[in-house]
Amino acid sequence: MTTCVLCAAPEASRVQLSLGEDIAVLCTVCETALTGDITPGPRWRCLADAVWAQDAGTQIAAYRLLRALPGEPWAVDLLETVYLAPDVLARAEVEQGEAVAGTEHRDSNGVLLAGGDTVVLIKDLPVKGSSMVAKRGTAVRGIRLVQDNADQIEGRVNGQTIVILCRFVKKSA
Known about the structure:
Elements (H helix, E strand, L loop, with lengths): L12 E4 L6 E4 L1 H7 L12 H4 L5 H12 L5 H9 L4 H10 L23 E3 L3 E2 L6 E2 L4 E2 L3 E2 L6 E6 L2 E6 L3 E3 L2
Antiparallel strand pairs: 1-2, 3-6, 3-10, 4-5, 7-8, 8-9
């Protein structure tokens, strides 16, 4: 009997995650959640271990499910600390719709940005809906690209996720 690589549920089957060789053994609940039908709850805490697995297929499945839980603070925090190899991260984000054909996110110097990059703010930015000001020189790690707007990225500054205009950042080396 095969068990799910994410939640260890019995009776799991092999699921192809991308056009390449990325395959994970998933139960029906986890497989359904990958298609977008996910209900937040404590069931998904298993992803905290799965995202650190040695297998790229397991990492990709866990990463995608964590991204599908934006309302769960623990999932957002985990996404900020997790490290995936650049090629694995690219495969996880492309299949998730992160990269839209023809949409390029560029910083203030015209350098191409990618999901997961670290950028530095080049200007003090007041955060709408808050009294917070994101200070110039603040490093924003693990940015996310706004899918349908090439002028915007998302990142966490002082523990708060904010939308940042690309023209106010520069990519860190």
